[in-house]
Each structure stands twice: as C-alpha cells, then as structure tokens.
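Long-time lurker. I teach an intro course on protein structure, and each term I like to show students one example going from raw sequence to a predicted 3D structure in token notation. This year I'd like something fresh instead of my usual example. Would anyone be willing to generate the tokens for the chain below so I can use it in lecture? Attribution to the forum is fine with me.
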Amino acid sequence: MIYGITLIILGLLAAPSLLLSKKPDAKELLDKITPYQGWIGLLFCFWGVWGVIQAVLNIGILSTFPIWWVTWLASSATEAVLGFILGYGMINKVLLSKNEEAKAKGQQILAKLAPIQGKLGLAGIAIGIWVIIASLFFNG
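-- Reply from a regular --
Happy to contribute to a lecture. Here you go:
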C-alpha cells in the first residue's frame, strides 16, 4: 500500500497543474517541496528500479497472483520513470557528471519523457490508486 501512496504523491509532484486546479492553496506546499524535488526524485527513481528488479526476480508470482505481479511491475516502472524525471538534476549531478556519454544518454531520455510528464503524473496517480485497491484484494 505504501507504493500506492508514494506513487500518488509522486504523480501530484509530476503534474502540479492538476493539484493546483483542484486546490489553489497547494502552491505554498509545492513551493516548500520544490527545493527537495531532486532528492525526492532520486530516491523514488532508485526505489522504482529496485521494485522492477524485485518483480522480475519474483516472476514466479505471476502464475499464482498475476494481477498483483503486473500491478507491482507497473507501479515500480512508473515510480522509476517519474523519479527520473523529477530527480534528473540530482541524478545528473550525483551519478552522471563524471561520464559524458552517460550524461548525454540521460539528457536524451529526459528529452523524450519531459513532454509527457503531466500524462505520466496522471498515470502515476491512477496506478497509485489501483495499487492501494489491489493491495487490499490481491496481495498474496
């Protein structure tokens, strides 16, 4: 269930216009979080990648709990992508700055993902809600 909650939060950070249209006073909260966005993104990127790795390593669950396994993989992948987008500045600074080839590849990936950031944020919110529901009904 924690994946679902964090994915909803990450989705709201990735699609701030959605949050601001529903709650105009949320701008103050977003302004407080913005300085930490890079670290938040970096953390969630790693957490999402770790979730993808864990899902793949536990592919045997697919035969007994297919809905839960697909949910696990989708939520982890979405979390990794949103974390990468939001934390790219920090990822670039901490991990990619010493390798020009990796830095260029990271910029290419970001350039492809940036135009769909809002849609990915909405997908993150939807998947997060589904993760919460699935954890209540399908978790083995």
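Some talking points for your students: The chain is about 85% helix and 0% strand. Residues 96 and 103 are 5 Å apart (CA to CA).
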